[in-house]
Amino acid sequence: MKHQGMILLLTAMALPGAGAVAGELRIDCPESVAALESLDGAGEAWRVETDLGKRGKFLDSISVFSGPPAEMASLVPDRTRRKKQLRTSTWQFAAPSTAAYWVACTYTNSTLQLTRQLPSGVRRCELGERLLPNGVRLGIDGMKCELD
Prior knowledge:
By secondary structure, the chain is mainly β. The protein has strands at 5-11, 20-21, 24-27, 32-40, 57-66, 79-83, 86-92, 101-107, 113-117, 122-131, 137-147. Strand 2 (20-21) and strand 3 (24-27) form a beta hairpin.
């Protein structure tokens, strides 16, 4: 049996520039991304069609890493707290640090990630998530990081 690989290409939705204001950096991942899929190795007997019932590729999570995300050194938040319908996760970074910290935006129905390295003076990052009354996550408010 031949291996059937799938390639996803990111189109037109780049990570917006993060705004910096007096020691603060805001990380705003795009809410959704458009991606083109192509199939390799299905063979001539198969016809490729698009499943119109599939949902789009929407922001699923923002993660923090020690080093590039490809190295898979995901960091657990130092603190997570919930106040009514908002959950806040906080990562604290030691200073001075020689580690390079990164963030990754991941999307539903996709293996794509948008990644970026945080500036060297990052001290703390806080991720806000909106919740339904029953605690199920409704959405992501974004991430704010404090800089030296």
